Amino acid sequence: AIALQTQGSRTGGSDGAALLAEAVTAYRAALRVYTEAAHPVQWAMTQNNLAIALQTQGSRTGGSDGAALLAEAVTAYRAALRVRTEAAHPVDWAMTQENLAIVEQAIADHDSTSDPAPHLRAALEHVTNALTVYDPVHMPDHFRTATKLRDRIQSRLDALTGKG
Question: Could you give the angle at the alpha carbon of 18 between the alpha carbons of 15 and 22, nearest 5°?
Fold first, then answer.
């Protein structure tokens, strides 16, 4: 699934879309083995990876089909957070929070979205959550990336509300 997802992300057009669809199918097949009850950590990781593939598909697909894929990505990320809790797996929790920020930003940018503000506010909340874990001393790359994402989202919100 990871190889198909990587190939699909790097390949444009219908070929890339087909590879991403294969990746989604492979992740869903893995979830039949990696169940939440029997293999919670692997299940959560697979949910997160499934969400990334769905997010890529959704961002590349217009209209209601793309919106549905992005919504499925949100659902998969949220499912992963059932295991990737802040208390039990803080770094994985923060990474999933950051991924939720990215997908909410993708929803805000999608051609099916008439009001991006609620999605940008949700994205800001998620990335702010991630920054509670990302330590600038011990995790400087994650901290820097999330800070830049937060600042971009805040700037977009400010522009929408006339604060910028």
Answer: 140
